[in-house]
Amino acid sequence: MTLGCSKNIFDSEVLMAQLRANDYDVKHEEANSDAAIVVINTCGFIDNAKEESINTILQYAEAKANGLVDKVYVTGCLSERYRDELEADIPEVDGYFGTRELPRLLKTLKADYKKELVGERLLTTPSHYAYFKIAEGCDRPCSFCAIPLMRGKHLSTPMEDLVSQAKSLAAQGVKELMLIAQDLTYYGLDLYKERKLAELVTKLSEVEGIEWIRLHYAFPTGFPMEVLDVMVDKPNVCNYLDMPLQHASTRMLKAMRRGTTREKTTELIRQIRERVPGIAIRTTLICGYPGETEEDFQEMCDWVAEMRFDRLGCFEYSHEEQTHAFNFEDDVPAEVKKQRTEAIMEIQSQISLEMNEAKVGKEYKVLFDRYEGGFAVGRTEFDSPDVDNEVLVKITDEQHIRLGDYAMVRIDSADHYDLHGTLLS
Ligand code: SF4
């Protein structure tokens, strides 16, 4: 079972490849599974995620008590952060493991840790795309964030290992790589004493069979602009950038210890759009941070309307113990956090509709991920799986669409977050 983010998906896939290599019959999130052993890869990021992880652990602890499973093991961020509390509160679990304890978990499962398999994965995503973790941990001081507590310091994966992982994935039929880390733009600073993201993306773009490379979790401060040149030069590097910005008010950005200001962020976005015309920028914002005033919030609303991000997610602030922000009073009422988050998403949904309507009549290369309700559902290069817009093409006898294939689609109609189109090729 995997809960939480794409980095957890990556870790589960690595664990599954190791188990399979030890002749385990491994399944991922299979409903009504008859598995004797269950491993839950948890998330400990914010309240909602923690609650979901605890409920999942309790569900399998009960299944064990009812004799439906023999062993239950828990790993991942929640276990890393609250191991002592979990061991005391849910002793039915056979073992708790941290985020960097794969060898010990395997040993407990009587499986050998096979070094030669490092980076090898059993994909849980559709076979044509894969999350591609290039580093672990984070050195940033963002005041609200508990991730460094669970994932440790930034650790870049050596470039040669990443290139061989990409070759192995391409050989398995993977066409799209979603590059992920806690802070993608920090890549190389630990290992090579300089930012190496541009060089890494260039090398990955030369791997035969990889048709789309997508960049997630970029950090604004010290953004390596040379990455944009690679995006312009290499047709298989998507004109897409995910850059969580968290807030617009300089007062809030300072309180959040983001190391930037509204003016610098606005200028950075302007330069990125100038260097890569038509780039789709995704961002993430937080509402209700301690001390956030109605003025700060209004400033963020005006900024979201002005900046017109292509994709945007907004979250309610979660008061996380052991973070710097936990020292401050969580003074924005839950109801106000909710109202502000909804208001930001209301502004964004209108922007998204206008941007989608502007795509009607145009043609796009689409990668098809699944069939649903008589439609083949895919994405353009401007859309990442599970978080962004989708393109729906009605399946007819005349036109057969194979999942994992690219095809040209003319957009016929649009709504807030989806496009409807006709297959051209
Ligand atoms: S960069 Fe991201 S993961 Fe790192 S501390 Fe900031 S918010 Fe957390």
Question: What is this entry, summarized?
Answer:
With 425 residues, the chain is of the alpha/beta class. It is built from twelve helices and 16 strands.
Write the layout of secondary structure elements.
Blueprint: H1 6-21, E1 37-42, H2 47-65, E2 71-76, H3 77-89, E3 95-96, H4 102-108, E4 129-133, E5 135-136, H5 147-151, E6 155-156, H6 159-171, E7 176-180, H7 197-205, E8 212-215, H8 226-233, E9 237-242, H9 250-255, H10 262-275, E10 280-287, H11 294-307, E11 311-316, H12 334-357, E12 363-372, E13 375-379, E14 390-394, E15 406-414, E16 418-423
Parallel strand pairs: 1-2, 2-3, 4-7, 7-8, 8-9, 9-10, 10-11, 14-16
Antiparallel strand pairs: 5-6, 12-13, 12-15, 13-14, 15-16
The structure holds iron/sulfur cluster (SF4).
3D structure, described in words:
There is one protein chain. This protein is of the alpha/beta class and 425 residues long. It is built from twelve helices and 16 strands. It has a six-stranded parallel beta sheet. Strand 10, helix 11 and strand 11 form a beta-alpha-beta unit. The longest helix is centred in the C-terminal third of the chain and has 24 residues. It is globular. The two termini are 39 Å apart. The mean pLDDT is 96. Iron/sulfur cluster binds next to helix 5.
Q: Give the overall form.
A: globular
Could you give the order of strands across the largest sheet? 4-7-8-9-10-11
Fraction in beta strands: 15-25%
Mean pLDDT: 96
Largest sheet: 6 strands, parallel
User: Which distinct ligands sit in these coordinates?
Assistant: iron/sulfur cluster
Radius of gyration of CA atoms, rounded to a whole number = 22 Å
The total of helices stands at: 12
**Uncertain residue segments:** none
What's the β-strand tally? 16
- SSE run: HEHEHEHEEHEHEHEHEHHEHEHEEEEE
Helix content: 25-40%
Classification by helices and strands: alpha/beta
The separation of the N and C termini measures 39 Å
What's the assembly state of these chains?
single chain
